[in-house]
Design brief:
Distance between the termini of chain B: 43 Å
Number of strands of chain B: 23
Number of helices of chain B: 23
Number of helices of chain A: 15
Oligomer: heterodimer
Helix content of chain A: over 70%
Helix content of chain B: 25-40%
Number of strands of chain A: 0
Shape of chain A: globular
Largest interface: A-B, 15 and 26 residues
Strand order of the largest sheet of chain B: 6-7-8-3-9-10-12-11
Order of helices and strands of chain A: HHHHHHHHHHHHHHH
Largest sheet of chain A: none
Largest sheet of chain B: 8 strands, mixed
Strand content of chain B: 15-25%
Structural class of chain B: alpha/beta
Radius of gyration of chain B: 26 Å
Shape of chain B: globular
Strand content of chain A: under 5%
Chain lengths: 307, 665
């Protein structure tokens, strides 16, 4: 028990927490982000219905406005769509899918980028040249274009049923494969600095292998800025996912992300059913803003010179 | 003497932090008269730089002056608004900082930076300020000022840049110069040149200088008065000779005693135990009492005031004591090389070892001449053997190839040509380890101490269990005078000296026989340096270790070396037993190196700075590489590379020595 309270005290005393406490914008961003995460995780428990389960949807309740309006029903706080699905539940489930895609693709780019960057920076020479030219080539392809291409390829190669089921994985792959360059460049630069330091020479004198030195010595010393890039890229990945889904090459309507919801709602905007498009859009804005603000603060903390 | 130029009264500088307010400078008072040099000495963290920055109001925020006054010519300057202070700073006070590279704008010529500074502070015409700029460059001893005027900072060497910075600070004829470690980044030879310049400014122009440094040798050489700082307080201040020759404060006494002296060899250097307290854990009473041998009950309870006592001010309750206990001058020069070592078989033999690097030429040259690479001969045809159990010192200025040679010996670099052979007692694989210069870069900041020390065991004895390694780590920590409890900590929780102990423990963990020490104490304070050197000596005796000790500090080498090798531009120019080397150096370069070491005992000594600087190793001079700086060079030296010739207990590569043209020393 004593160790637990001691641990909590140490976390609260940590520089990061201290910095956070002195920045109101970052506190709000952190609170909003964590609330959204909790909501996404606990979606089945906080939403009144499961909009993806056709059995729980009542077609008679379709096109109801938000609860506070004249025809509103208190059960559906933010109203319902044309199929009678609760907008609030749709938004929370959409948030969940957006976050899953965002996180998985960030993890994928992080893994690719950090590995390539570490290899490139530590090995140097022609390995470095090849990896960095590959990064340059990668940057000359727009993310959206690559994603649409991959989607097309997957659609042609996979049977329709499999394609439908693996939409999420295809999306994660096409966003993840595009985002590795910033990680690689940052890790490469830091690795080039770190490998010249004397502790690396000491490790070589201790007869450690190059792989062991790169992974256990150099890598941990390059990770600080990676957290910053990852946070900012999370927002970017969510936004890319929303764009793709809006364009119709992302998540299908049966498994809607926030982008899919905006696309569906967009069709009913002019017929007066504004709530179908406004609430998913608002959620997207709030999510991106909160994650970005948090990322900006993190960057300031890690690199005070940029402020 | 009329009223002093600068008066500092009860200066107090505080740093508010979230863990409470730290007092970095506490009640510091001193004064400097026109034409005098006040040296402020103390170990790192003593508050000397902070005092300097407070005087010129350049404290890094959140640091601020919270008490006391600073008077320039009777006028208060500590509370001036920023704009007025800026005028005072340029016109009345000049500042010189440690790093001459960051003090200059790399994109502007030296001339335009000078003219700009002059224009800001002096109301004179364009042509007059141009003329003044040329005059300043000449004043600080820059040869060919008209050519240098139009050049950029990167075209200047370190010493020359520091002269330019000095010229900048002199632009508006200031009456006070605050010089913060102006020579720490420079070689001894260049250091001597810059010091001579400062001294000349004082005597010729009546400028007052505050010289902040940790190098007591420098202070002894040019300062008139000394102020010794410890943990943010002034502990002793007075005329330089009195403080150095008869220190009254135990800290000053310990500090002076731990400075290695060139005059005679001591087997053990005097050391002050422990380390300076951190600002956030200041002891009660006298701040020095935990390290003080004379401490009594009163020292623990009450802080002593700074009081007049035999021609100086000193803050100590026990100032009446004749405190000389620690300065053991044996009077005898202990035999540096035990007979057993002299007879020992060589452990390491280098034969005609060379290490060349290919360096890309500038882009334009590459395009125009299509020659992409040029060769840097870092180590050039070096033959050397190191005997079991001895300490071989390798000395030379920076850029001479010492560190490259060290890494070559350690196997971190592959030799371009030549052979390196080991005759290890243990078998085929020699156990070579290194102790590095920078205690901050040589330990991985993300690793715990136990993992750092245990790392060599992982590769050396992979079958050992974690418990076995843990026990060995605890044992090693005890051997280097750290506590086994420290094993769970991270490197940032230790001071520089303690980190160097951890490095030593890591070396021992590998069961090393041959240890290459690359400037192991040059980043440490003198009192801590003595601790580390003594520890290394104890371990050498206990485990029969062989050291290759690389250093630019000949005074340190005097105390540790059994033999000395002098390196210049990748070649060994002289090799001799330490006793012979220090009494009769043969090579002119060795002689000049010895002469340029500042001495504590002789004031304004005939310290002759070596002319010029180490040439660019990319294009070394022909013949004997040292000839452009050598006072004895003749035609043969300019054309013919000298071969090794025998000297007593060693060899030397010099035409003048061979032809017996050198004066007797």
């Amino acid at each position: 028990m004593a160790t637990l309270t001691e641990g909590i005290r140490r976390i609260l005393d940590h520089d990061l927490v201290w910095n956070l406490r002195s920045s109101p914008a970052a506190i709000i961003a952190a609170i909003v982000t964590s609330l959204l995460f909790i909501a996404a995780l606990g979606a089945p428990f906080i939403t009144p219905q499961n909009p993806l389960d056709l059995a729980s949807v009542n077609l008679l309740d379709s096109e109801l406005p938000p609860a506070w309006m004249a025809d509103g029903v208190s059960h559906y706080i933010l109203g319902t769509d044309t199929q009678g699905r609760d907008i609030f539940s749709l938004v929370i489930y959409g948030l969940r899918i957006s976050l899953i895609v965002g996180f998985l693709s960030v993890i994928m780019s992080l893994f690719i980028g950090v590995s390539l960057g570490l290899w490139s920076g530590y090995a140097g020479g022609w390995v470095d040249a090849i990896i960095m030219r590959a990064a340059d080539v990668k940057l000359s392809f727009p993310t959206i274009l690559v994603a649409i291409m991959l989607n097309g390829v997957a659609k042609t190669l996979l049977p329709a049923e499999v394609f439908q089921k693996s939409a999420l994985l295809i999306l994660v792959f096409s966003i993840g494969i595009s985002g590795w360059v910033p990680y690689a460049r940052v890790v490469r630069g830091l690795a080039m600095v770190e490998k010249e330091k004397e502790y690396v020479q000491a490790a070589r004198l201790a007869r450690r292998s190059h792989t062991a030195i790169a992974v256990s010595h150099v890598l941990p010393n390059t990770l600080g800025p990676i957290a910053v890039i990852a946070t900012i890229n999370l927002a970017l990945a969510i936004l890319t996912e929303a764009t793709l889904s809006f364009l119709g090459v992302g998540m299908p309507p049966t498994e809607p992300s926030l982008g899919t919801l905006v696309r569906i709602g967009n069709e009913y905007m002019l017929s007066g059913l504004w709530w179908i498009v406004i609430f998913p859009s608002l959620m997207l804005v709030v999510l991106i803003l909160a994650v970005n603000l948090f990322g900006d603060w993190l960057r300031d903390v890690f690199n005070p010179k940029l402020r | 003497m009329n009223s002093p130029l600068l008066q500092v009264e009860n200066l107090r500088v505080e740093f508010p932090t979230r863990h409470g307010t730290l007092v970095a400078v506490r009640d510091v008072s001193f004064s400097v008269g026109a034409g005098r040099i006040l040296g402020i000495v103390g170990e790192s963290g003593a508050g000397k730089s902070m005092t300097g920055s407070a005087i010129i109001q350049l404290l890094e925020p959140p640091g601020r002056i919270t008490g006391g006054r600073v008077l320039l010519d009777g006028q208060r300057i500590d509370n001036l608004p920023l704009a007025k202070m800026r005028a005072v700073r340029g016109r009345q006070i000049g500042a010189i900082f440690q790093d001459p590279l960051t003090s200059l704008d790399p994109l502007q010529t030296i001339g335009s930076q000078l003219v700009e500074t002059i224009d800001v502070h002096l109301d004179i015409s364009k042509s007059a300020s141009q003329a003044r700029a040329h005059e300043l460059l000449g004043n600080v001893g820059i040869p060919a000022p008209t050519v240098r005027f139009g050049q950029y900072p990167h075209q200047f060497s370190g010493g020359m840049r520091q002269r330019v910075v000095t010229a900048l600070s002199l632009a508006a004829r200031p009456r006070l110069i605050v010089a913060d470690e102006p020579t720490t980044a420079l070689d001894v030879s260049t250091q001597a040149q810059v010091m001579a310049l400062l001294k000349r400014l004082c005597t010729e122009h009546g400028v007052a200088v505050i010289l902040i440094t940790h190098d007591i040798g420098v202070i002894a050489e040019i300062a008139d008065d000394v102020a010794v700082m410890y943990a943010g307080q002034l502990v002793e201040t007075g005329p330089v000779r009195q403080i150095i020759d008869e220190p009254k404060h135990p800290y000053t006494a310990g500090l002076m005693a731990s400075v290695p002296r060139l005059e005679q060899r001591q087997n053990r250097l005097n050391q002050i135990g422990g380390a300076m307290p951190r600002l956030d854990s200041m002891p009660n009473g006298c701040a020095f009492h935990p390290r003080c041998e004379l401490a009594i009950e009163r020292c623990r309870l009450e802080a002593p005031p700074l009081e007049r006592h035999s021609n100086r001010l000193v803050a100590c309750w026990r100032k009446e004591e004749q405190y000389t206990a620690r300065i053991e001058t044996t009077g005898k020069d202990p035999a540096p090389v035990p007979a057993s070592v002299l007879a020992a078989a060589p452990l390491v033999e280098a034969k005609n070892l060379s290490c060349h690097f290919s360096v890309p030429r500038p882009l334009l040259t590459r395009i125009l001449t299509s020659r992409a690479l040029q060769t840097l001969k870092a180590v050039n045809d070096v033959s050397l053997d190191i005997r079991l159990g001895e300490t071989l010192a390798l000395v030379g200025e920076s850029g001479c190839g010492k560190s490259s040679f060290a890494r070559l010996m350690a196997g971190l670099y592959t030799p371009t040509s030549g052979q390196l052979s080991f005759s290890s007692a243990s078998g085929s694989q020699p156990r070579i380890q290194m102790i590095f210069q920078d205690p901050y870069a040589s330990l991985n900041p993300r690793w715990r101490v136990e993992d750092i020390i245990a790392e060599p065991m992982l590769a050396g004895a992979p079958s050992s269990s974690a418990a076995q390694r843990g026990a060995r780590v605890a044992e090693l920590l005890t051997q280097v005078n750290l506590s086994p409890r420290d094993s769970r900590k991270y490197p940032h929780e230790f001071s520089g000296g303690q980190r160097q102990r951890i490095s030593i423990a890591r070396v021992l963990a590998a069961d090393a026989e041959f240890i290459i020490c690359d400037e192991p104490t040059s980043a440490l304070d003198v009192s801590v340096q003595a601790q580390i050197l003594n520890l290394m000596r104890d371990l050498q005796l206990a485990f029969n270790l062989t050291y290759l000790f690389i250093s630019h500090n000949l005074a340190v080498v005097r105390h540790v070396a059994d033999r000395v090798a002098v390196m210049y531009l990748g070649r060994i120019v002289e090799l001799a037993d330490a006793a012979d080397f220090f009494t009769s150096p043969a090579h002119p370069y060795s002689r000049l190196l010895l002469q340029s070491v500042p001495s504590l005992s002789v004031r304004d000594s005939n310290r002759t700075p070596i002319k010029g600087e180490v040439p660019n190793p990319m294009s070394p001079p022909g013949g004997c590489a040292f000839h452009p700086r050598c006072p004895y060079a003749n035609e043969r030296c300019r054309t013919e590379v000298p071969m090794d010739a025998p000297r007593s207990s060693g060899r030397v590569a010099c035409h003048a020595w061979e032809e017996k043209r050198l004066p007797y020393m």
